[in-house]
Amino acid sequence: xxxxxxxxxxxxxxxxxxxxxxxxxxxxxxxxxxxxxxxxxxxxxxxxxxxxxxxxxxxxxxxxxxxxxxxxxxxxxxxxxxxxxxxx
Length: 88
Fold this sequence. Notes:
Residues 1-88 form the FERM domain. By secondary structure, the chain is an all-alpha fold. It has helices spanning 7-10, 13-20, 44-60, 65-72, 76-87.
């Protein structure tokens, strides 16, 4: 959930008065100028990258895909896509 910020805390009074000419007493969403890639803020992308690298490493060390699926609680199809995708 996104956190709301009171305009008085971040905008100059002159800008607030100008915005109030168009919108009064309503919530106003101002989008970011640059969008962050998925998982970069939370670290999820890096965690998945490390998990996938671990899966590939274990596969190359001799653990079969069925066992990897069980260990990582993933489907066999997902393990296959990680292993074959990483090997390309």
